[in-house]
């Protein structure tokens, strides 16, 4: 029998999400499970968000507002960016997909880092694009090498800043030098999913970049992480009005659901709650550094709410050891990072539990020679 689907689909390794808490409870018969695997916000949504969702629930018989009117107004006011520069997605994942739909034909090329957020690669493969994956240098984006990977067929370049899974970032100087040298027929996609966490140091502000008339740039952000709305799927892109128009043409009309829109507006109004998550994360991240230092493990200092650590052991054995004791982390061999796990900052007591079980794992599982 002939396969009627696109041949490229057979080359895709499916995305493997972090294991859900309920699944681990079910499969392992555990009562108390901690998930530190998907960079989620451990505080849960703000009470004001829950109230807004309850209120909006009465109207779910109606289609959502296709233009995200109130959310767009609220973000425009907060960021000082004109409304015609926004495009909204079912999570920022959908901004990635919309960008590829609008810019990439089969056999066009896309440049990504390796490793980085896997969705860039997978979504590009779905489009039939050729993906040029450029290795990181010292766990950081190698922008020079990425420039070198651009060909006449390249249409999109993805830059996660900060990056996932490393938590590293590129500076404004590095980004400017890069964008100056990218030609104007390539779209630069800057994914700032962890923007809110990346305070201090030389992590760059970038929104002014989309004013450049001679470059095509999309900056993507999300309500999934610092704003604690991962389950509702709301993300957005900021770009030049003409590019926003192009992306809105390929967008499904009702892509952002009504509960998500209401929740995102309420989350923006409760900035204090979001700041609490950032503070918790920064404080607990210091404890992660201490814990890893104490165990003699190498890690990449992170500007995000997660951290990549080299267990110095078979990471699938470490992953399994943790899982059986009710702690879900992410094992990184699918990213080509042998021996590494990625773990996100949880509540203090969740982190304590992770530190304890990890210390046991390090003791019991032999290290690599
Ligand atoms: C989590 C994450 C996203 C956000 O995805 P949503 O679809 O908005 O939930 C985007 N990019 C990166 C690098 C991420 O880690």
Give a verbal description of the structure.
The protein has a 7-stranded mixed sheet, with helices on one face. Strands 9-10-13-12 form a 4-stranded antiparallel sheet, covered by helices on one side. Strands 1-11 form a two-stranded parallel sheet. The chain is built from 12 helices and 13 strands. It is globular and about 55 Å long. The protein is α/β, with parallel strands linked by helices and about 375 residues long. It has helices spanning about 20-30, 45-55, 70-80, 90-105, 120-125, 145-150, 170-180, 240-250, 260-270, 270-295, 315-325, 350-365, and strands at about 35, 85-90, 110-115, 130-135, 155-160, 185-190, 215-220, 235-240, 300, 305-310, 325-330, 330, 340-345. It starts with 20 loop residues before the first helix and ends in a 5-residue tail after the last helix. The protein has 2 domains: about 5-45 and about 270-365, Aspartate Aminotransferase, domain 1 (Alpha-Beta Complex), CATH 3.90.1150; about 45-270, Aspartate Aminotransferase, domain 2 (3-Layer(aba) Sandwich). Helix 2 runs antiparallel to helix 9 and helix 4 (about 90-105) packs parallel to helix 5 (about 120-125). Pyridoxal-5'-phosphate binds next to helix 4.
């Amino acid at each position: 029998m002939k396969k009627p689907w696109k041949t490229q689909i057979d080359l895709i390794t499916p995305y493997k999400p972090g294991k859900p808490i309920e699944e681990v409870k079910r499969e392992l018969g555990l009562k108390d499970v901690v998930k530190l695997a998907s960079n989620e916000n451990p505080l849960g949504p703000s009470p004001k968000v829950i109230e807004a969702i309850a209120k909006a629930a009465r109207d779910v018989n109606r289609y959502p507002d296709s233009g995200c009117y109130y959310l767009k107004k609220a973000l425009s006011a907060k960021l000082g960016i004109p409304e015609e520069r926004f495009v909204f997605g079912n999570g920022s994942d959908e901004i990635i997909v919309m960008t590829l739909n609008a810019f990439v034909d089969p056999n066009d090329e896309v440049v990504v880092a390796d490793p980085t957020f896997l969705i860039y690669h997978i979504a590009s493969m779905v489009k039939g694009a050729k993906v040029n994956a450029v290795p990181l240098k010292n766990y950081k984006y190698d922008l020079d090498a990425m420039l070198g990977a651009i060909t006449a067929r390249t249409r999109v370049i993805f830059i996660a800043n900060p990056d996932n899974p490393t938590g590293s970032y590129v500076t404004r100087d590095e980004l400017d030098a890069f964008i100056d040298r990218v030609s104007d027929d390539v779209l630069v996609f800057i994914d700032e999913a962890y923007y809110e966490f990346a305070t201090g140091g030389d992590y760059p502000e970038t929104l002014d970049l989309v004013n450049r008339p001679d470059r095509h740039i999309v900056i993507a952000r999300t309500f999934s992480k610092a704003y604690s709305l991962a389950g509702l799927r709301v993300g957005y892109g900021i770009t030049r009005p003409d590019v926003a128009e192009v992306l809105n043409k390929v967008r499904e009309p009702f892509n952002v659901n009504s509960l998500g829109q209401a929740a995102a507006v309420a989350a923006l109004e409760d900035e204090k709650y979001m700041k609490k998550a950032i503070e918790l994360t920064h404080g607990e991240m210091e404890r992660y550094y201490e814990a890893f230092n104490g165990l003699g493990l190498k890690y990449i200092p992170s500007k995000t709410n997660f951290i990549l650590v080299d267990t110095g052991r078979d990471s699938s054995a470490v992953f399994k050891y943790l899982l059986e004791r009710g702690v879900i982390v992410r094992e990184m061999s699918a990213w080509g990072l042998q021996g590494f796990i990625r773990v996100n900052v949880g509540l203090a007591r969740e982190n304590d539990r992770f530190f304890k079980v990890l210390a046991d794992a390090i003791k019991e599982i032999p290290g690599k020679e």
